[in-house]
Amino acid sequence: MVIRRFHLIFCSSVLAVFMALFLSPAVAAKENLLSESDQQSVQQVIDGQISAFKTDDYSTAYSFAAPNVRQAFPSVQMFIEMVRSQYMPLYRPVSYLFGRNTLSEGLVYQELIVTDLHRQLWQIIYTLRQQDDKTWKVTNVVMYPYDGVSA
Questions:
Q1: pTM tops 0.85
Q2: Are 118 and 95 in contact (CB under 8 A)?
């Protein structure tokens, strides 16, 4: 119940921002002020979390979660159960590559294209916020299936 409510709230907000930023090139170009080093840091966080999922290093995977996620899922076990039930393509990806990213109102929206175990393609939007200690943490993830399968 908490998982579904959390997921619905963030999915609708991320979808609205995604549409505004990624579907409007003029806005995306104007807002995309993410430095090269921040882009690398954001991608390292995502790589680190996915690598931790793949090796069942649940504590490390959870360490990349922002305070809002930790509040919704106050234990590592609750977090991993949510990931397994709703984000299997991220939990066990066959492959992934980074797509576009943009910065808006302090949040980074980073696109990934993921291939799951069934060769299904997924567009995944990670949302991250820089913390007071200058680290980037994952605040939300949404997934959209692509039509077709990978080669």
A1: no
A2: no
